[in-house]
Amino acid sequence: MRFVKGHGTENDFVILPDPDGSLDLRPATVAALCDRRAGVGADGVLRVVRAKAAGDPVADELAGEAEWFMDYRNADGSVAEMCGNGVRVFARYLVDAGLAEPGEWDVATRAGLKRVTLGPSGDVSVDMGPPVVQGDGRATVAGTEYTGLRVSMGNPHLACPVDRPVRDLDLTRPPVVDPAVFPEGVNVELFRPLGERHVEMRVHERGSGETRSCGTGAVATAVAAAGPGRTGEWTVDVPGGRVTVTLDGRTSHLRGPAVLVAEGHIRDDLLR
Ligand SMILES: N[C@H](CCC[C@H](N)C(=O)O)C(=O)O
């Protein structure tokens, strides 16, 4: 099976073109593809399927409004509602493959329609929808408890301010959270303000572990850094690069690079 490899600020994905929805993508297959030693290696998989052929109830509902459905999977094979870097790489792939024109159009996701804007090359922007602030939450990272802001971007986030350079944090083990507060798990961001509307961030993702970047997490972080009701543009520095988040009080936008780096063939025995 053909694949393309791409990334957005080094949050990387195996892209599986499956326009007619013929691939039965099982969790074990996703985990094998994402394995950085025995497989291709990635933080997640983006199955590229026409919404009407996806065999997904949300995709069925949105098929009249978007041609393509992003079937996002985490590296452990779990399914997540939304992926901000992923949908930008997904859009770059569609234009690169000649399956969509540069411009502005909707992609169907499990978190609803997401409007992407992209040229023939360069950065890709996406309307991430309205962040939903859900109150405070706590996470213990390497023995230190942090309090942060719970934000839903369609998927769950806990964005915690820290008072030290984020490079000094130990994220080798998953943050410990209260399963009663986060029954579906949570993506945990740790951020430090670097200046007015400028933060640095690291993330431990649900289902993928620490990644070099997280688009939904960058928006959740900007919301936490901004505080209630503040609007404008935030620069979010992640280990994999830099993204820009714009909050306008109604919705949120994410902008940054989306790069395709390779393509190849996956042998059938990896797809079993
Ligand atoms: N890296 C993704 C987030 C994946 C979220 C996933 N780990 C989850 O379980 O919600 C992003 O750019 O938004």
Automatic annotation (TrEMBL):
**Site residues (Could be important to modulate the pK values of the two catalytic cysteine residues), renumbered to this chain:** 157, 205
| Localization, UniProt | Cytoplasm
Q: Which domain of life is it from?
A: Bacteria
Record flagged with keyword Amino-acid biosynthesis: yes
Sorted alphabetically, which Pfam families does this protein's record hold?
DAP_epimerase
Q: Which reaction does it catalyse?
A: (2S,6S)-2,6-diaminopimelate = meso-2,6-diaminopimelate
Pathway where it operates = Amino-acid biosynthesis; L-lysine biosynthesis via DAP pathway; DL-2,6-diaminopimelate from LL-2,6-diaminopimelate: step 1/1
Alphabetical UniProt keywords: Amino-acid biosynthesis, Cytoplasm, Isomerase, Lysine biosynthesis
Entry function: Catalyzes the stereoinversion of LL-2,6-diaminopimelate (L,L-DAP) to meso-diaminopimelate (meso-DAP), a precursor of L-lysine and an essential component of the bacterial peptidoglycan.
| Family, per entry | Belongs to the diaminopimelate epimerase family.
Output this protein's name. Answer: Diaminopimelate epimerase
Its ancestry begins with: Bacteria, Bacillati, Actinomycetota, Actinomycetes, Streptosporangiales
Which gene holds the coding sequence for this protein? dapF
